[in-house]
């Protein structure tokens, strides 16, 4: 039995239009003439070009294997009741190697050579033995990394460089590219690279999005810092373990998790996933749609 106690997606609550408009005006999210919403500021193209060139030079020195995690999101180009979006989180650090995914009616977790699936109804948890390489996400993310490197070699993107005070980090550089042909002959459409930076120009990862074959829109975000990636991996294990009944402790606030690492690691190590497998249903054909066979 898998108890789905929370949903990761945000719910927007209805409110009278005038109340929303007044709140937005007072908070700055509706721009007055000559102003941008939310107190944002867009910098001149020349400044955006200088930042882009600096980031391109920096990215030339980075390698895919230096990244400790990435998030992949796949959205159908045309939404309908038969096709849902998927979000995949992949974390690889000294502490954890974890894959987690959320679909429309189920959660997936790969942990310690097993893939688990918990359903939001009364269906039993299913699992299968699976090697990390068989998930194929690492090869997928590495290939997209090479696409980002090819994009950064181009000199024809449409650049936008903004200050967004409500974001953390608050500076965003976005590079939008025309339809392009990759080195292997494939074509991609509506490709964009985006970097969020602090006031010193440092960034803790970047994102890439594009459209594939008018079937789906794909985005992938890379992040290199092991500490924050370990926290994300831990939260994925904890959330699934809690919903599967392996612990009575709910996932803590991120600040509590950061401050008390020893206790959090003890909770994770105390979860008996072998016992979970014994009371779950084995499915040799279990896979994570739509990317694994």
Through-space gap between termini:
26 Å
- Please state the overall shape, judged from the principal axes of the Cα atoms: globular
Number of helices: 8
Quote the beta fraction. 25-35%
Q: What's the overall average pLDDT, rounded?
A: 80
User: What proportion of the residues is helical, as a percent range?
Assistant: 25-40%
The count of strands amounts to 14
The radius of gyration computed from the alpha-carbon positions, rounded to a whole number of angstroms, is 21 Å
Order of helices and strands: HEHEEEEEEHHEEEEEEHHHHE
Largest sheet: 14 strands, mixed
Question: By helix and strand content, what is the structural category?
Answer: alpha+beta
Keywords:
single chain, 293 residues, alpha+beta, 14-stranded mixed β-sheet, globular
Write up this protein:
The model is unreliable at 7-28 (pLDDT under 50). 29% of the residues lie in helices and 29% in strands. Strands 1, 2, 3, 4, 5, 6, 7, 8, 9, 10, 11, 12, 13 and 14 form a 14-stranded mixed β-sheet that branches. The longest helix has 18 residues, at 226-243. The chain is globular. With 293 residues, the protein is an alpha+beta fold.
């Amino acid at each position: 039995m898998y108890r789905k106690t929370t949903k990761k997606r945000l719910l927007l609550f209805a409110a009278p239009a005038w109340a929303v408009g007044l709140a937005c005006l007072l908070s700055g999210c509706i721009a007055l003439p000559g102003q941008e919403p939310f107190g944002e500021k867009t910098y001149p193209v020349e400044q955006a070009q200088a930042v882009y060139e600096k980031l391109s030079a920096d990215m030339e020195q980075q390698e895919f294997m230096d990244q400790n995690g990435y998030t992949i999101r796949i959205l159908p180009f045309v939404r309908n009741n038969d096709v849902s979006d998927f979000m995949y989180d992949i974390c690889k650090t000294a502490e954890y190697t974890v894959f987690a995914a959320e679909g429309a009616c189920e959660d997936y977790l790969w942990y310690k050579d097993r893939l688990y699936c918990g359903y939001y109804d009364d269906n039993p948890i299913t699992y299968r033995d699976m090697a990390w390489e068989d998930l194929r996400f690492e090869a997928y993310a590495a290939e997209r990394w090479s696409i980002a490197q090819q994009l950064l070699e181009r000199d024809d993107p449409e650049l936008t460089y903004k200050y967004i005070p409500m974001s953390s980090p608050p500076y965003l550089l976005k590079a939008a590219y025309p339809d392009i042909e990759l080195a292997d002959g494939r074509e991609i459409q509506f490709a964009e690279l985006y970097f969020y930076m602090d006031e010193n120009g440092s960034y803790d990862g970047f994102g890439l999005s594009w459209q594939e074959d008018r079937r789906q829109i794909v985005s992938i975000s890379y992040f290199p810092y092991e500490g924050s990636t370990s926290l994300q991996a831990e939260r994925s294990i904890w959330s699934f373990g809690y919903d599967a009944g392996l612990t009575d402790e709910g996932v803590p606030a991120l600040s509590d998790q950061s401050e008390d690492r020893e206790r959090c690691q003890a909770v994770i190590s105390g979860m008996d996933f072998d016992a979970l497998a014994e009371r779950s249903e084995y499915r040799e054909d279990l896979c994570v749609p739509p990317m694994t066979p």
